[in-house]
Design brief:
Elements: H1 2-20, H2 22-31, H3 34-42, E1 52-56, H4 61-69, E2 79-80, H5 83-92, E3 97-101, H6 105-110, E4 118-121, H7 126-147, H8 173-204, H9 207-211, H10 217-247, H11 256-280, H12 284-301, H13 313-318, H14 323-337, H15 341-373
Parallel strand pairs: 1-2, 1-3
Antiparallel strand pairs: 3-4
Length: about 375
């Protein structure tokens, strides 16, 4: 009971320190509001209102059908270009796609001479380029078949593929990037916030005040975890409700309370990691240099940026030691697929177990650090 009372009062002290830190509070507010909105609306990987140029050397009914079929919202209205203008426009990056329709296209199709329509792509926009080529190929084939009254071609094939897109039928990129950016911000801020709290007290000399008090190192460390984790947990809840759901219109299918429970376990794991890193670093610059590789590895290999299934098997197994890998699966399962506790409990157990290991190591390092301070 005495341990809990001491943790409570120390947590109140830590909470006041965090709320009075204007720089850190500004970073939290911006990270869970403006940063998520900007990334979700600005960093698009789907094709939307893309500039298209067209070189029409045929001027036939078929070429006009193809031109008229390239329409918003996927593409802008095609702009007629000469070959010289097209090359200059592609070099300047003014068009992502240029469709080159050769002369005598319709006559060659009628004569079954297999003419070629060239689609030039600015591959610096890699994801949009790949998807846009698929859309343009579908448009060209469809309009060619319809111009010669060829219908129900798929019914004549021995097999017919049927695609069902689950959880994001329109492949809206903001539905994915907003939640993944939220996870990345949780990862960065939870480590930085608690690590900065430890180093700040050590650099200012206020940790000596704690050493003369009848408190244990575990009480000091746990209080920092509770206070800093609580601030971020509240910020996450408000971000999901106000930014993700209300402003970005991302449908949150699962239980918000279950997601916040998993987030609390993740915060416990990362704040313990932050204390561990803070006990290794001697100053704030060293802590920053030490934390950056941790952020990069957890971000790139957790499954939030690229699917884990695309990685080598040994790397997938190694990343099971990272709490971010399990938390990404947990968050995607709850928010996108409405998964319940019966599905995500292994991820929650893994996050809590890894956090316990981090906490044990952090307490050992924290005790030795306080002993050196004393």
């Amino acid at each position: 009971m005495i341990w809990l009372i001491n943790v409570f009062h120390l947590s109140i002290k830590e909470l006041r320190c965090v709320l009075r830190d204007t720089t850190m509070m500004t970073a939290i507010v911006v990270s869970f509001s403006i940063a998520i909105y900007v990334v979700a609306t600005g960093a698009k990987t789907d094709v939307n209102h893309v500039a298209v140029g067209i070189i029409d050397a045929d001027h036939s009914g078929l070429s006009r059908r193809i031109r008229d079929a390239i329409q918003p919202p996927l593409f802008q209205a095609p702009v007629d270009l000469s070959r010289e203008e097209a090359q200059a426009a592609m070099d300047e990056g003014r068009y992502l796609f240029i469709v080159d329709i050769p002369a005598h296209l319709e006559a060659d199709v009628q004569a079954q001479r297999s003419p070629t329509i060239q689609v030039m792509v600015d591959a610096t926009a890699m994801s949009q380029g790949r998807l846009g080529v698929a859309y343009l190929n579908e448009i060209i084939v469809r309009e060619t078949l319809e111009s010669f009254h060829v219908k129900d071609l798929e019914s004549q094939l021995p097999t017919r593929p049927v695609t069902h897109v689950l959880f994001n039928p329109n492949s809206t990129s903001s539905w994915f990037t907003s939640v993944m950016q939220l996870i990345n911000n949780i990862t960065v801020l939870s480590v930085v916030l608690v690590g900065a709290a430890v180093i700040r007290e050590r650099e200012r000399g206020t940790i000596e005040h704690l050493l003369v008090m009848p408190v244990r190192p575990s009480e000091i460390a746990v209080a920092k975890i509770v206070a800093n984790g609580l601030v971020i947990l509240v910020a996450v809840a408000l971000s999901v409700l106000l930014i993700v759901k209300l402003l970005l219109h991302v449908p949150v299918e699962g239980s918000l309370s279950l997601f916040l429970t998993g987030t609390a376990l993740y915060l416990f794991s990362l704040t313990a990691l932050g204390i561990l890193l803070a006990t290794v670093a001697a100053s704030m610059p060293q802590f920053g240099l030490l934390a950056v590789p941790v952020f990069v590895v957890m971000y790139l290999l957790s499954g939030s940026a690229t699917p884990s299934e695309n990685m080598p098997m040994w790397l997938q197994n190694a990343m099971l030691l990272s709490p971010s890998t399990h938390y990404v699966k947990l968050a995607q399962g709850i928010l996108y697929r409405a998964a319940g506790l019966g599905i995500v409990w292994p991820q929650m157990l893994a996050v809590g177990g890894i956090g316990s290991v981090f906490l044990a190591a952090a307490l050992m390092r924290f005790r030795s650090m306080l002993a050196r301070q004393g």
